[in-house]
TrEMBL record:
The keyword ATP-binding does not apply. It is found in: Cytoplasm. Its EC number is 3.1.26.4. Belongs to the RNase HII family. A divalent metal cation binds at D16, E17, D108. The gene is rnhB. It catalyses: Endonucleolytic cleavage to 5'-phosphomonoester. The lineage of its organism: Bacteria, Pseudomonadati, Bacteroidota, Cytophagia, Cytophagales. Residues 10-193 form the RNase H type-2 domain. This is Ribonuclease HII. The keyword Manganese applies. Endonuclease that specifically degrades the RNA of RNA-DNA hybrids. Manganese or magnesium. Binds 1 divalent metal ion per monomer in the absence of substrate. May bind a second metal ion after substrate binding.
Length: 193
């Protein structure tokens, strides 16, 4: 059973990102503030859910959340600052975009660049422990998957509708045959292998 809040009596935003290991597309983060007593019967880490469950959940989360926001960092910026910093930047941008200022941030993972004047707690596998982080994982994943499916219509050879930019055999074979697109992360070592 996932927990509602890590720090009772503080307005907490859960933060998660998706797309760090991809060869193409932006890294995307979401920030979600849920009501303190929130419960959803199937909300958990987005990786444990089916496509259909995530699609249903993202509608429910957007409707029920106190506030939510999604942000991205482009492949060009990932190449400039590196993927770890880009992940933190996406989380900062998502926090910036919230319509309600959180009093505490719950961050999925073991590292984070502090956000100005809002304390944070990093939680490894937080998306399987806290509802707000799980909700952020669902919003980030559904947003990014849809974006990559749309980009895949322009670049069908790379299989982004299925692999969403991850280094699958089809994706890597297409890079070898057709080269890279403006959406590829040129700094990633796998692009040069």
């Amino acid at each position: 059973m996932l927990k509602s809040y890590h720090t009772p009596n503080l307005l907490e935003a859960g933060l998660d990102e998706v797309g760090r290991g991809c060869l193409a597309g932006p890294v995307v983060a979401a920030a979600v503030i849920l009501p303190p007593d929130y419960h959803h019967p199937i909300l958990t880490d987005s990786k444990q859910l089916s496509h259909r469950q995530r699609d249903k959940l993202q509608v429910d989360i957007r409707r029920d959340a106190v506030a939510w926001a999604i942000a991205e960092v482009s492949p060009a910026d990932i190449d400039k600052i590196n993927i770890l910093k880009a992940s933190f930047l996406a989380m900062h941008r998502a926090t910036d975009a919230l319509t309600v200022r959180p009093e505490h941030l719950l961050v999925d993972g073991n590292r984070f660049t502090p956000y100005p004047m809002v304390p944070h707690t990093c939680i490894v596998k937080g998306d399987s422990l806290y509802l707000s982080i799980a909700a952020a994982s669902v919003l980030a994943k559904t947003y990014r998957d849809e974006l990559m499916a749309q980009l895949g219509q322009t670049y069908p050879a790379y299989g982004w509708g299925q692999n969403v930019g991850y280094p699958t055999a089809i994706h890597r074979a297409a890079i070898r045959e057709y080269g890279t697109t403006p959406y590829h992360r040129l700094s990633f070592r796998l692009l040069r292998e």
